[in-house]
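Before any further analysis, backbone shapes were mapped to integers, which produced the following:

***
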Amino acid sequence: MGKYTGPLCRLCRTEGTKLFLKGKRCLSDRCGIDRRSYPPGAKGKRITFKKSNYKTQLREKQKVKRFYGVGEKQFRIFFYKAGQKKGITGTNLLQMLELRLDNVVYRMNFAASRAHARQLIRHGHITVNGRKVSIPSYILKAQDEVAFKAQSLSSENIKTMLEDVKGLVEIPEWLIVDPEKHVGKVNSLPNREDVSIPVEEHLIVELYSK
């Protein structure tokens, strides 16, 4: 599937839940799903679909993919790797997605959204344990330290951005952040309870297990 380039609020309305794709707008009264909670399209208010197990499973998968900004090919790779690890496949999958560098940068309040975090990473502004990492899908480990490059912090644009996103999202307990130095650390691996999106991951496992 190609990259989606349409209105982001349309994705939230399709999935029926906030995916927090547009930073502060998602927390304001301008949020698309708050203003129009029905599915997009001319018949959005009236249209009804026949429910099926496949559709329910597919919607759960699409919701998680869009929440974390992952394409189908990459999502399948994550699912395969989750199945190779010890433990519950669905929980392993969500844990790996939470530990993606772009998600961690966003959860540390270093970016306005996960898409914004990916842009910062690709442009070389983010370091992991003192080394520049430009791969948004990089999987962090416990005790890894995430920070901005010193050169990036001297930029007025970055300074303004960091001030603007301060306190945007609640920092989970598995992350430790120094907001003054703009440095964070993965204190421990995230638990299932740390996943902020409402999802029934067992439906995704059932979908891919067919």
In short: Residues 13 and 39 are 5 Å apart (CA to CA). The chain has a mean pLDDT of 85. The first strand starts at residue 126 and ends at 128.
